Amino acid sequence: HDHLISANQLTREDIEAVLDRAADIAENPAAFREQQAGSVLALCFFEPSTRTKMSFDTAMKRLGGDTTDMGSVESSSVKKGESLADTVRVIQGYADAIVLRHPSEGAAKMASEFADVPIVNAGDGAGQHPSQTLLDLFTIRENAGLDDLTIGIMGDLKYGRTVHSLASALTNFDARQHFISPESLRLPRSVRFDLHEEGAQVREHTDLDEVLSELDVLYVTRIQRERFPDENEYHKVAGEYQIDLDTLDAASDDLTVMHPLPRVDEIAPEIDETAYATYFEQAHNGVPVRMALLDSLLTHE
Ligand code: CP
Q1: What domain count does the chain have?
Q2: Which residues are carbamoyl phosphate-binding (predicted)?
């Protein structure tokens, strides 16, 4: 079975196939209404989620399928000490595919070794979040285009799994990537190494002003407080790298501001009503993109 574990596994052709199908779905959702009738998707979220869980749920239902939800760690038998391997071995008997979010890096990969149905990694700790990347790329393609793209990715680049997946997938396109973060939250060495191996056009900055005026897209992220081993380290960087209208003075009028959400204080609400703001559209794109992804994983083309 095909699993979606990491953005590293996605070729340009894979990505374009999903984005093209998502565009078809967005244009004519009625044509896909019975596409997965009779199929069931299991939602296994060991960590909180609003967008990923609800948009996968909606996506499956809009394809005519159904979903079954493990519920929270507190309300499931994980609470009694059941292992992830056993949980997956059981749930695969209830569903045709499993969407898994887990606090441990590598959890989805491990789960895929125990599953006879496709596993979608919906976030594994500070690792990867590849289905988010597909909706990010869809949003970028619609707003700025994926060719000759200059993107700034700002905030928590160390623990931000959406960043790791997006940076990797962008190596398939003609994209210049500028990474903007405090020194302590730079990209992990392993991600930098992979980008280098792929020949990515990458620069790192601590100051957004160094690059803001060149950007087509500014992808802002939340400081991932829950990943810091030491709360004091979080407080040293909390509140840095926020943007408001003054910050964007030097930006192009066509700048697209994205954020995987949830935001805490990284983007001032005054930006929400401007033409820059694309983060709610981005979240809404989760439904057609995840419909396209599920349809491709479940149809075995
Ligand atoms: N962007 C994202 O993964 O959001 P949730 O944590 O709400 O699923």
Answers
A1: 2
A2: 51-52, 101, 129, 132, 261-262
Residue 49 CB less than 6 A away from ligand 1: yes
- Whether 116 and 197 share a structural domain: no
Q: Catalogue the E-assigned strands of 168-229.
A: 175-180, 201-205, 217-220
137 plus 13 within the same structural domain: no
Range of the domain at 54: 7-128+285-299
State which H helix or E strand residue 168 sits in.
helix 161-170
Nearest CA to ligand 1 atom 4: 51
The reply to whether 22 falls in a domain is: yes
d(CA 100, CA 166): 19
Q: pLDDT tens digits for 5-35?
A: 999 999 999 999 999 999 999 999 999 999 9
Residue 2, domain member (yes or no): no
Go through 230-250 and write b for each residue having 16 or more CB atoms within 10 A of its CB, e for each that does not: eeeebeebeeebbbeeebbee
State the pLDDT at residue 240: 85
| Within a domain: 1 | no
pTM: 0.97
Based on the domain organization, do 143 and 121 belong to the same domain?
A: no
95 and 136 belong to one structural domain:
no
ipTM confidence = 0.99
Question: Residues 141, 278: one domain?
Answer: yes
Low-confidence residues of the chain, pLDDT below 70?
1, 300-301
Could you identify the atom of ligand 1 that is nearest to the CA of residue 129?
A: 3
86: left (phi over 0), alpha (psi -120 to 50) or beta: alpha
pLDDT at 239: 86
What average pLDDT does the chain have? 96
Q: Ligand 1 pocket, 213 CB below 6 A?
A: no
Instruction: Compute, in angstroms, the gap from residue 48 CA to the centroid of ligand 1.
Output: 8
Q: Which residues are catalytic?
A: 51-52, 80, 101, 129
Q: Is 161 in the pocket of ligand 1 (CB under 6 A)?
A: no
